Every structure is written in structure tokens, then in C-alpha cells.
Amino acid sequence: MRVLKMILLLALAVIIIMLAVANREPVVVELLPTQFQFITGWSTQVPLFVVMIVMAAGGFTLGWSWEWLREQRTRTIAARRRRQIAELEAEVQTLRKDTGREEDEVLALLK
């Protein structure tokens, strides 16, 4: 498994390096469209591969965050059920101690 992981990471690194080498030309990145430059005139030149990698990382982060928030309800239900199971197991132990029988009646009949 470790070897497969290293091979996949190496392949990903080669793809990213090829992407960077193929897209080195500078592009102008502006904060707002040209019609709204009077608000802020911020713009800069960066290589195209930087824009591509930043946008991909932002998309992955946004997607991960969205899924994490969407699954919050499921995690809450699972935590509630874990607490209920722990409470019920404690109650079963208490009842077994109160009755003086450590075994289940059905299992005692099978012996």
C-alpha cells in the first residue's frame, strides 16, 4: 500500500510539474472587472499555472467544507446513538448486578 501511495504521489507531482512548465506565460489577475476598476485598481501579473493551482486548491477546499457541513447531521446522530448505547450497556450491567445473575437466562437454559 505504501508503494502504491508513493507511485501515485510521484505521478501527481510529475503532472503538476508538466502543467507548470507548459503554462509559464504571465497573465494579468484583476480583483474586479474593468468596468469597476474605479473602486480598486488592484491587478498583478502571475504565471498561469499559479492561477490554475490556486483555483483547483480553492475548489477542493470549498467542496470538502461543503461536504463536512452537509454530514454534520449524520455525525450528530451517530454521537447521540453512541451515548445511548453506552447508557444502555451501563443499565444492563446494573441490572445484572442487582439480580445476581451474570448470564442471560436463555444462555443458562442452553447449558
UniProtKB/TrEMBL annotation:
InterPro entries: LapA_dom. The keyword Transmembrane helix applies. Residues 34-92 form the Lipopolysaccharide assembly protein A domain. Pfam families: LapA_dom. Residues 78-105 form a coiled coil. GO terms for cellular component: plasma membrane. The chain crosses the membrane at residues 48-66. Keywords: Cell membrane, Coiled coil, Membrane, Transmembrane, Transmembrane helix. It comes from the Bacteria. This is DUF1049 domain-containing protein. It comes from Pontivivens ytuae.
